[in-house]
Structures are given as C-alpha cells and as structure tokens.
Here is the input.
Amino acid sequence: LDQGRSVVPFSWNLMMRLLAWSLTYRRHLVLITAAADSGLAALTECNASLAAAPHALLGLPPAEVAAYRGCLDERPRAKQHFYLYGGLYALHLLGWFAQGFAPSQFLLVRMSSLPRAPAQARALQEALASFVGLPPPADSAATARLCLGSSMVTRKQHRVKMHNGSTVAQVKAEFGASAAAADARRFLGAHDAVLDALVRREGMRVY
Here is the structure.
C-alpha cells in the first residue's frame, strides 16, 4: 500500500453529467427525476444523520466509515443510488485511508483541468508521469491522438424526439429547475464541502 499511487478524476456537477448521459440514451425526463429521487432516498436509508450532515464523516472512526459504506454497497440499494454515490469522493477517500492508503498516494484531477489544447495535454501528462514516478512521454507520443475534452459531450442544440423536439439544452434547463435537481444539488454540495475540508486537512494534491 505504501508504494501505489492513484489518480482520481472528479467533477462537482454529477447530476448534470447524469442528465447528459441519460439524454444520450433518450431516457425520459420523468425517469431521470425519479432516479434522482430514489437515489437520494436510498442514500438516506443507511444513515439519515450523515445524509443530512455529511461533514460528520470527518470525525467518524474508520470502523464506522466502513460500516456506513458497507450499508450503501448492499444490493439492491446500490442499484438505486450509484449515479450519486460515485460522486461522494470524501466518503470513498476516507474508506481508502482506513484500508491503509495515505493521502499522499492520491492525485485529484479536476474534470475542469482536463486539456482542451495540446499544450494543456502535455502539462497534464507531465504532471501524471511525475506523480506516478515515470518519465514524461516523448513529444510524438504526447501529441498523438489527443482527446481534448473533459466530459461526456451531448450536442446542446440536438433535438430529442422523446422530449417533443426540445433541445438537450432546454431539457437540461427544465431538469435543473426541478425540485429533484434542487435536492440533489444540495446533497452533493454538502459532500463537495466535505471533500474540500478533507483535502485541506490532509494536504492532498489537486491538479
């Protein structure tokens, strides 16, 4: 455990990414909203206090963190909340720390930091190589077949038949204004604050 290193890409806006992915597969907005509601309910079942105030995670003994994660990992509960659960980065990091990994073994890479130009790609490749103890790639390897994008891309002006011809941007806006989106935003926002606090407390590296 003291030798391995992990690079963890993360994004604060998982519900919008869920929506983009769902629209790609033409899921109806009603189903997306129901998935958000059922996911939050499943996450609350294991520990309503932690769901309401996740900052308490930072003070839990490792055994209690493991028990909480164990409850969340149980099926069929996990099938209901996995869209949201994947974004609870602080909870997952605490679980890994409890298994013996050190904070210095992780490099957190913001999705917003992923490259949009060749020079940015080179800088990221060098940072990743340095972190895991490898030499930087040769220029030819570094520039070949670059993927210059930071997320699943849906064409914002693409019209979706299932939504009566509305564009992806319009459907996203409709979901963003819903009560389900507001609840999910509050929940994930609280966990984002926990991650910020954990990163500061442990002195973790963020790119």
Summary: The mean pLDDT is 80.
